[in-house]
Design goal:
284 residues, alpha/beta, 11 helices, globular
């Protein structure tokens, strides 16, 4: 991401969440703020892009954007039931959970981590949409070139002595391996009961020809936006790596399992295509 500019991929993801609310029935992921946060002009344009939104590649990407948020919030609900009261949204972009905290009554605090310029842009969008930021939610601007995740959270009032749940959606493929390892090591050092959900892609060599074309198309678009894809994992090696780091439980869902769990028995064909993307939950 360019310094001082908000993330362009964050807007693309937010638009797909909004389209999901408008076009797909039944919804995999309900987000009553998804349309409002992108602003009236962007929301109005969605209605004129029907053919684009109904393209098979677009539908599959939208399905993945929706289901990864659903999976993260399902796992968060389990964590809250087990006593976790701190939720950290890494690379939050235009995610709206902090403004619709369904676990506020249980005392869940939400810490949103993102680049300062992206967070300022988000605050402007929230103000324009009339969406309030609840008192139990904290925006934590972190420029990772100058500040560590731990320092940023500590300054925001995060309690490292208590367990926490982290979501890390749409971020890992853009990282270096060193940055990924550093963040996972930080989470692995949290108290028992802590956990994380993230998505990742498998190496291009493990995709079939059609999947490679779709990957190349997406990679070209995000690279043009200044946010190139660069990190991929082989599932078995990744699971072994995480267990070595101290995660006692690892659940890895490929596209087939995601479709079975979240898209089964639909009549509209809305589901993930291909098998290049995974959702992973790891607990300490």
């Amino acid at each position: 991401m360019h310094e001082y500019l908000p993330s362009r991929t964050a807007l693309g993801v937010a638009r797909r969440r909004a389209v999901h609310q408008l076009l797909d029935n039944p919804r995999v992921f309900d987000d009553p703020l998804a349309v409002s946060i992108i602003g009236p002009e962007a929301a109005a344009r969605l209605a004129s892009e029907v053919s684009t939104n109904e393209h098979p590649v677009s539908r599959s990407l939208r399905a993945f954007v929706a289901v990864r948020s659903r999976y993260a919030e399902d796992e968060l609900t389990l964590a809250v039931a087990n006593g976790v009261r701190q939720y950290v949204v890494l690379g939050a972009g235009l995610d709206t959970f902090a403004c619709r905290n369904i676990h506020a009554a249980a005392g869940l605090r939400v810490f949103e981590i993102d680049h300062p310029s992206t967070q300022e842009w988000k605050r402007d969008l929230l103000r324009t949409a009339g969406i309030a930021i609840p008192a139990e939610s904290v925006f934590v601007p972190v420029d990772f070139e100058r500040q560590s995740l731990g320092d940023g959270l500590q300054a925001a009032g995060f309690d490292h002595r208590q367990p926490a749940f982290f979501s890390w959606l749409g971020v890992v493929p853009y990282l270096t391996e060193d940055a990924f390892r550093a963040t996972m090591a930080y989470i692995a050092a949290m108290p028992p009961g802590s956990g994380v959900v993230f998505d990742y892609g498998v190496p291009r060599s493990e995709l079939n020809a059609r999947e490679q074309l779709a990957r190349d198309h997406l990679a070209g678009r995000v690279a043009a936006a200044g946010e190139p894809l660069q990190l991929f994992f082989e599932p078995k090696k990744l699971a072994a790596q995480l267990r070595t780091m101290g995660f006692r439980h690892v659940e890895d869902l490929d596209a087939a399992e995601i479709n079975r769990r979240y898209f089964r028995d639909r009549s509209d064909g809305f589901a993930l295509a291909g098998n290049g993307t995974h959702l992973l939950s790891a607990r300490v």
